[in-house]
Specification:
Length: 388
C-alpha cells in the first residue's frame, strides 16, 4: 500500500540521489577501512533513514511494507555494507519491539532507534542453532525482578557497534524447540554482556559481525518483550516474515546496480571492432539478468501489498527471499562474465566486490535449502487443506 504517491516519489528521488552522490564515491574506501565513515552515518541520521520501518508515533516514518521495499530497491544499489549500517534498525533490530513490544518498551527504545542514536541487532543464531533456529541453548532464568542470561550467540550483524540487542533465550528449563523461548532487549553496558572481535569475512567489508556472550548477565524483567514468556519464537517469526520481504528487496538493488555497471562496461569495451554489448551471446546475459530482476521486483511488490492488506505472507516471503537471493547470485556471476578479466580484478572494477558481498544473501535469514523446504511444506499444507 502506498499512502501518498507524491511523498514516496520524493523520498525515492532523495534516496537515489544520496546513493549516487554520497555512497558510490566511498564504496571502495568503506571496504578498505572496514567501516562506514561517521560523516555518512550522521547524514543517514539527519535524513531519518534509520526510522523507515518504525511507527510515526515513535519517531519513525512508519513506512508500509510496499513503501519499505520500494525504498529498499533504491537504497541497496550500492555497496552492501552501506545499507547494512541502517538495515538492522529498519529491520531485524527493531521489528520485535514494533511487533510485540509493550507501549512502555516501544517508547523507551524505538524513538532513539528511529533517530539512529541507538543501533539495534537481532541475536538469534547460536553455534548449535543455525538452520535449526529453535535449538537455542542460551538460558534466561528468573531471579526476582530480573532474568539472568547465560549463553553464546554467533554471526550477529552489527553486534560490534550495537547499543540494543534483541535476544532470544530459553526461559523454560528443559523445554525443546520453539516452546519455552522468550525475547529480551539487552542494552550494551549491561554487566555480563560482551561482544567478540568482528569476524574476517568473504565480503561486506564495513559491515561488522561478531559473537555475543552472556555470562551471568542480569537483565531487568521489564525488558522481556511484550511482558510474556514463551512466545519469543512467534515474535521472531513475525520479524522474519516481514524481514524476508525487506531482504528480498535488498537483494534486488545490488542486482540492478551490477547490471548497470555491466551495461556501461560492455558498451565501452570493444573487441573485434565493436562494443562487446553488440554480441548476441553477451545480450543473452543481459536479457536473462534484466528479466530475473523484473521477476523479483514484481513478486516482492505483490507480496508486500498482500502483507499490507493483512494477509498471511509466510509462503510468499519465503519464495521472495529464495528467488531474489538466488537471482542476485546469478546476476553477479553473469556480470563478472560480462566484465571479462576486469570482473575478476579488484583494481579494475567493483564487480568483484559485489560478487563476494552478495554471496551472503543465500545464507542468512534462512539458507536457500531451508526456504525450499518451507515453500514445499506450506504448498503441501495448502494442497491438503484444499483436498479436505
Ligand atoms: C555474515 C553473517 C551475518 C549474519 N547475521 C545474523 C544476525 O544478524 N542475526 C542472527 O541471528 N543470525 C545471523 N546470521 C546467521 C545466519 O542466519 C545463519 O548462518 C544461517 O541461518 C545458517 O545457519 P548455519 O550457518 O548454522 O548453517 P547450517 O545450519 O549449519 O547449514 C549448513 C548447510 O546445511 C544445510 N542444511 C541445514 N539444515 C538442512 C535441512 N534440514 N535440509 C537441507 N539442508 C539443510 C544448509 O542449507 C547449509 O547449506 C548471520 C550469518 C552470517 C554468515
Amino acid at each position: 500500500m502506498i499512502r501518498d504517491p507524491a511523498r514516496l516519489q520524493l523520498l525515492v528521488a532523495d534516496i537515489r540521489a544520496f546513493v549516487r552522490d554520497r555512497w558510490h564515491p566511498v564504496e571502495d574506501d568503506v571496504e578498505r577501512a572496514d567501516e562506514v565513515p561517521p560523516a555518512v552515518v550522521d547524514e543517514l541520521r539527519r535524513k531519518g533513514y534509520f526510522g523507515w520501518s518504525i511507527p510515526e508515533a515513535y519517531g519513525g516514518l512508519g513506512l508500509t511494507t510496499e513503501e519499505l521495499v520500494t525504498c529498499a530497491f533504491e537504497l541497496s544499489q550500492a555497496s552492501v555494507a552501506l545499507r547494512a549500517r541502517v538495515g538492522t534498525n529498519t529491520g531485524i533490530g527493531s521489528e520485535a519491539l514494533v511487533a510485540d513490544g509493550t507501549d512502555e518498551q516501544k517508547s523507551r527504545w524505538l524513538p532513539r532507534m528511529a533517530s539512529g542514536e541507538l543501533t539495534g541487532c537481532l541475536a538469534l543464531t547460536e553455534p548449535n542453532a543455525g538452520s535449526e533456529a529453535t535449538n537455542i541453548q542460551t538460558t534466561a532464568s528468573r531471579e526476582g525482578d530480573a532474568y539472568v542470561l547465560d549463553g553464546k550467540k554467533c554471526f550477529i550483524t552489527n553486534a560490534p557497534i550495537a547499543d540494543v540487542f534483541t535476544v532470544i533465550a530459553r526461559t523454560e528449563p528443559g523445554s525443546k524447540g520453539s516452546s519455552g523461548l522468550s525475547a529480551f532487549i539487552v542494552e550494551r553496558g549491561t554487566p555480563g554482556l560482551r561482544t567478540g572481535q568482528p569476524y574476517r569475512k568473504m565480503g561486506q567489508g564495513g559491515s561488522p559481525v561478531s559473537d555475543v556472550h552472556f555470562d551471568n548477565c542480569r537483565v531487568p524483567a521489564a525488558n522481556l518483550i511484550g511482558g510474556r514468556e514463551g512466545v519469543g519464537f512467534q515474535t521472531v517469526m513475525k520479524v522474519l516474515n516481514k524481514q524476508r520481504l525487506h531482504l528480498a528487496a535488498l537483494c534486488t538493488g545490488p542486482a540492478i546496480r551490477m547490471l548497470d555497471l555491466a551495461m556501461a562496461h560492455t558498451s565501452r569495451r570493444t573487441q573485434f571492432g565493436q562494443a562487446v554489448s553488440n554480441f548476441q551471446l553477451v545480450q543473452a546475459l543481459i536479457a536473462d539478468s534484466r528479466t530475473e530482476i523484473f521477476a523479483a521486483r514484481s513478486m516482492i511488490l505483490e507480496a508486500a501489498r498482500a502483507r499490507d492488506r493483512g494477509e498471511d505472507v509466510a509462503l510468499m516471503a519465503s519464495m521472495c527471499k529464495y528467488f531474489a537471493s538466488e537471482m542476485c547470485g546469478r546476476v553477479a556471476d553473469r556480470c563478472v562474465q560480462m566484465f571479462g578479466g576486469c570482473g575478476y580484478v579488484a583494481d579494475f572494477s567493483s564487480i568483484e566486490r559485489y560478487y563476494r558481498d552478495v554471496r551472503l544473501f543465500r545464507l542468512y535469514e534462512g539458507t536457500s535449502q531451508i526456504h525450499q523446504l518451507n515453500i514445499a511444506k506450506l504448498t503441501l499444507r495448502d494442497h491438503a487443506k484444499a483436498a479436505t
